[in-house]
Amino acid sequence: MNYAKWISHFQRNRENRPEPDWAAPFALPESVLRPLHPSLAEYQLGDGGGPACLIAGDAEQFRGSSEAMRQIVDLWFAEEREHSRLLGRAVDRIGARRVHEHWSFTAFLACRRAMGVRAELQVLLLVEIVSTVYYRLIRRHCTDQPLRDMCSLILRDEAGHVAFHRDRLAAAGVSNWGLGGTLWELQFRRFGLAAAAMLWLNHGRCLRALGTRPLEFCREIHRELSRFVWRLGRTAQAPACVRLPMPQPA
């Protein structure tokens, strides 16, 4: 994997980030605000508001595999903290109350701590993918321009995060080719759909209030999972791909 490419990407991505105009006139109907309040507050807690680092028991095997990887992981989670900051401003803008705990976030952290770093990385990747759909649907349906501008900034970051994970997996020899690849894809899609179901359980009321239909949500989820798998296969077949060892469980 081209470490220098990703260090440069994350450093460059700090530039040209116009702050949403949080003081702009605000007008959203109460029917949208009621479900939007808890949704954005919960996302502010989960998207970098908790421990913005890898927390699996063997996480240091991956993060400490090289100084370059340590730097990339730190830069990645720095962007997650920036998302939490932006979401905090959005929560304040709509007059919602920030939350410091939620059952789904507590369960999410417990699972991450209990599993190995390879599984934790996949879970975080799937969260990035389904969150891409969440932010895209808010940007598409919400009429508040600062919230839409916030989503654009976060979507820009998420695209880089997903691409980084794709390069990471391809460099480790993962693809959707052959029997092993097919089995990997099946489990990836299954857990991806589970992550999407959890997102809809917690945030579907908000998305519906904005105008999203369940079929639209499902279509976007399917598109993002399929796009990732297809691009992973293309990346893994590229001749310049350098294979890296995956960290082994402790």
Explained architecture:
The chain has 250 residues and is mainly alpha-helical. It has one domain (29-237): Ferritin (Up-down Bundle), CATH 1.20.1260. It contains nine helices and no strands. The chain has helices at 3-12, 30-46, 59-63, 67-93, 103-114, 117-141, 145-171, 178-210, 214-237. Helix 2 (30-46) runs antiparallel to helix 4 and helix 6 packs antiparallel against helix 7 (145-171). The longest helix is centred in the C-terminal third of the chain and has 33 residues, at 178-210. The two termini are 23 Å apart. Residues 240-250 have low confidence and may be disordered.
Q: Top keywords for this entry?
A:
250 residues, mainly alpha, Ferritin, 9 helices, 72% helix, globular, disordered C terminus
Task: Chart the SSEs and their pairings.
Elements: H1 3-12, H2 30-46, H3 59-63, H4 67-93, H5 103-114, H6 117-141, H7 145-171, H8 178-210, H9 214-237
Helix pairs in contact: 1-4, 2-4, 2-8, 4-7, 6-7, 6-8, 6-9, 7-9, 8-9
Q: Tell me the helix content.
A: over 70%
How large, in whole angstroms, is the Cα Rg? 18 Å
Summarize the biggest pleated sheet: none
Binned strand content? under 5%
- Counted beta strands: 0
Low-confidence stretches: 240-250
Shape descriptor: globular
The CATH C-level name is: Mainly Alpha
Instruction: Tally the helices.
Output: 9
**Spatial separation of the terminal alpha carbons:** 23 Å
Query: What string, H for helix and E for strand, traces the elements in order?
Result: HHHHHHHHH
Number of domains: 1
Q: Determine the mean pLDDT.
A: 91
In the CATH hierarchy, the third-tier topology is known as: Ferritin
Based on the coordinates given, report the CATH architecture. Answer: Up-down Bundle
What class do helices, strands and sheet pairing give? mainly alpha
